[in-house]
Design goal:
This protein is an alpha+beta fold. The protein has two domains: 3-13 and 206-288, Helicase, Ruva Protein, domain 3; 20-198, Beta-Lactamase. The chain has eight helices and four strands; from the N terminus they run αααβαββααβαα. Helix 1 (3-60) crosses helix 3 (78-90) and helix 7 (199-250) runs parallel beside helix 8.
């Protein structure tokens, strides 16, 4: 095995190891960044929902108080307003969703499904928990969800959700007496759940990963070619010439010119030593003659 081949084998092995380590680390970092981006988007959507709820509660509901005595207007309910706002968003982005999932809701569309019920149960079992996030598979791909508990902290909420006889007659007329009652102060009745798709962010992470790995390969190829050229010019060729000259001198041919010794590297030291050995051997042969 020649010197060049040995050098290239070592170089390829080192690069392969480095490429594997760099690939694993970069993949992990890019996927973590993609998840963080999705979490930020979910948190932004949750903040927007809370802003809509707050606006409705402070500025819409007081102005509809008189009409609410005659006709129940769901638009005055903060949860309804937030849900309707995000339903408008879903017209352009159906993969995003917001729901105020409740175990026993007044409006049937807010009824929690199985996986939402599991989230609500975790909040009920851990009253100190402020939020909860996770990922689940959907028909459009992996989706990350962010959930926050809906707890009865405002006594005003109980006016509509204790018993049908206490609730506004207009609301009972609209939704009936079967659902949305029996709530208690401090009870966790549901969860605000925002779902954000991870497909786009993961696709961006995959593209960045492929670009990064391709760049590494191109850098290696350039370095490989450059090192091989440098190895050939600076080491392999001088050694081959010295080996050829040494072979001719060993047969008594002293017409081979001496090597030009320039620089201070190891090849120059070897060339100087070879020239000295050649002159000594030539003088010895003349004396013997």
């Amino acid at each position: 095995m020649g010197l060049r081949l040995k050098f290239n084998v070592v170089l390829v092995l080192v690069f392969g190891l480095g490429l594997g380590v760099a690939g694993a680390l970069s993949r992990r970092i890019l996927e973590a960044n993609a998840r963080d981006e999705v979490v930020r988007n979910a948190d932004l959507m949750m903040g927007a929902a809370l802003a809509v709820r707050s606006y409705t509660n402070r500025q819409i509901d007081p102005n509809l108080e008189l009409q609410m005595r005659r006709t129940f207007l769901p638009q005055s309910i903060p949860a309804y307003a937030a849900t309707e706002t995000f339903e408008a968003l879903r017209q352009q982005h159906p993969e995003y969703s917001y729901k105020e999932a409740v175990l026993n809701p007044t409006n049937p569309r807010d009824k929690a499904v199985e996986w939402e019920t599991d989230i609500i149960s975790q909040f009920r079992n851990d009253p100190e928990r402020k939020d909860f996030s996770g990922a689940r598979e959907t028909p459009t791909g992996t989706s990350l969800y962010l959930a926050r508990p809906i707890r009865i902290t405002d006594p005003g909420c109980l006016q509509c959700h204790t018993t049908p006889d206490v609730a506004p007659a207009s609301m009972v007329k609209l939704y009936g007496t079967a659902n949305g009652f029996g709530w208690k102060q401090g009870e966790t009745v549901g969860a605000q759940i925002v779902s954000v798709p991870m497909t786009v962010s993961l696709a961006k992470a995959d593209k960045a990963f492929r670009t990064f790995m391709l760049s590494l390969v191109l850098v290696f190829v350039a370095a490989f070619l450059g090192l091989n050229i440098a190895l050939s010019v600076l080491i392999i060729r001088p050694i081959i010439r010295m080996a050829s000259a040494a072979d001719q001198v060993s047969t008594g041919n002293f017409s081979v010119p001496e090597f030009a010794a320039r620089g201070q590297d190891e090849i120059t030291v070897l060339a100087t030593s070879f020239n000295r050995l050649r002159r000594s051997l030539e003088k010895a042969m003349r004396l013997l003659e």
